[in-house]
Design brief:
single chain; 6 helices; disordered C terminus
Length: 165
């Protein structure tokens, strides 16, 4: 469990560094590639609830520190997204790759809408009509970036499962 925690935390930190450096810039704004969000949804597919909630909360706190002045926004929303993924994945038979891709899109759109609503309520940031289109495009981009990451996750988990049985 502790080994898994540090492995997933290391993956999350590496994705956070990539997200904050190489994949962030004026040429791709307003579309921000949210690699950490994809990791949080992938953690929701694991059966380890405690591990996933801790890592999603910790990564949410780091994203809050690096992204916004309002601490607690992603710290709250990442564990909520993890919880939704975990509940759907462990309590239903909806476990295909296509469901996972669609859930990344839907949850990304929900996540960004919640961020925009909370920023408008707390800070007074304006929310324009064009941002709705931006949110949908960002959800699509996140889903497309998630395709290879989901396949890699599935491949690594299939390789690893026989070691624990």
């Amino acid at each position: 469990m502790i080994k898994d925690f540090f492995i997933w935390l290391g993956i999350g930190m590496a994705l956070l560094v990539l997200q904050a450096t190489w994949f962030y810039g004026e040429e791709i704004n307003p579309f921000r590639l949210d690699l950490v969000f994809i990791l949080v949804t992938l953690l929701g597919t694991l059966s380890q609830f405690g591990l996933g909630i801790l890592i999603s909360a910790f990564l949410g706190m780091l994203v809050d520190i690096l992204s916004w002045d309002m601490l607690g926004l992603t710290l709250t929303l990442y564990p909520l997204i993890f919880l939704l993924c975990h509940l759907v994945w462990t309590r239903t038979q909806l476990q295909s790759l296509w469901i996972q891709f669609v859930s990344i899109f839907v949850l990304q759109v929900l996540y960004v809408f919640l961020v925009q609503i909370l920023l408008k309520i707390n800070i007074g940031v304006e929310f324009s009509q064009i941002q709705v289109l931006y949110i949908l495009v960002q959800g699509l981009i996140t889903m497309l970036i998630g395709l290879p990451l989901v396949y890699l996750h599935r491949y690594l988990m299939k390789k690893r499962l026989p070691l624990h049985q």
